[in-house]
Amino acid sequence: MAVASPQVSARTVEANEFPELSARFGVQGVPRTVVNERGAFVGALPEPQFVEAILQLAGVEPPAADG
After folding, report:
1. CA distances from 63 to 2, 25, 48, 66, 67 (A)
2. What torsion, rounded to 10 degrees, do the Cα atoms 18, 19, 20, 22 define?
3. What is the phi-psi region of residue 18: left when phi exceeds 0, alpha when psi lies from -120 to 50, beta otherwise?
4. Does the pTM of the predicted model rise above 0.85?
5. What is the b/e burial string over 18-51, where b = at least 16 CB atoms within 10 angstroms of the residue's CB?
6. Where are any strands of DSSP class E within the chain?
7. CB 36 within 8 A of CB 45
8. In the Cβ-directed half-sphere of 3, how many Cα atoms lie within 13 Å?
9. Which of these, 58, 42, 67, lies nearest to 5 by C-alpha position?
10. What is the pLDDT of residues 26-60, one digit of tens each?
11. Pair 28, 19: CB distance under 8 Å
12. Sign (positive or negative) of CA dihedral 17, 56, 45, 42
């Protein structure tokens, strides 16, 4: 998402090397995705579910599904 949009930024942190950040964001499993420091989810999701989770945590209404 960060590659596709200048409105999105992404950071990767090695949890074992930065224990203070791991504690701050409650990392107990990886990958842990944190959105705007408001919400997070753990695990690798298929792309449609990943996008849906990101939009929900960002407070953005997802586009209407065709069909």
Report:
1. 19, 29, 12, 9, 12
2. 90
3. beta
4. no
5. eeeebeebebeeeebbbbeeeeebeeeeeeeeee
6. 32-35, 39-42
7. no
8. 0
9. 58
10. 888 889 999 988 899 999 999 999 999 999 998 88
11. no
12. positive
Single-letter amino acid, residue 66: D
8 pLDDT tier (thresholds 50, 70, 90): confident
Q: Which residue has the tokens 């842990």?
A: 32
The first and second tokens of residue 29, run together, are: 């499993």
Instruction: Give me the amino acid identity at 46.
Output: P
